[in-house]
Amino acid sequence: MRLWISAALALVVLLTAGAVAQAPPAVNVAAISAERPPQLLSAYGFFHDPGAREPVAGVTPYDLNTPLYSDGALKFRYVYVPPGAQARYNPDGVFDFPVGTVLIKTFAFAADMRQPTQNVRFLETRLLIRRADGWIALPYVWNEAQTEARLSPIGAQIPVSFTDEDGDAITLDWAVPNRNQCKGCHDLAGELTPIGPSARNLNRPMTYPTTTIGSAGDRPPIGGRDNNPIILEGETAPQLDVWRRLGLVDGLPESDVPSVPQAYDASSGTLEQRARAYLDVNCAHCHNPQGPAHTSGLDLRWSQHEPIQWGVLKRPVAAGRGSAGYEFAIEPGHPERSFLLYRMESTDPGVMMPETGRQLVDDRGVALMREWIAEMD
Question: Please, which residues have CB within 8 angstroms of residue 232's CB and are 6 or more apart in sequence?
Answer without folding.
Answer: 208, 221, 222, 223, 242
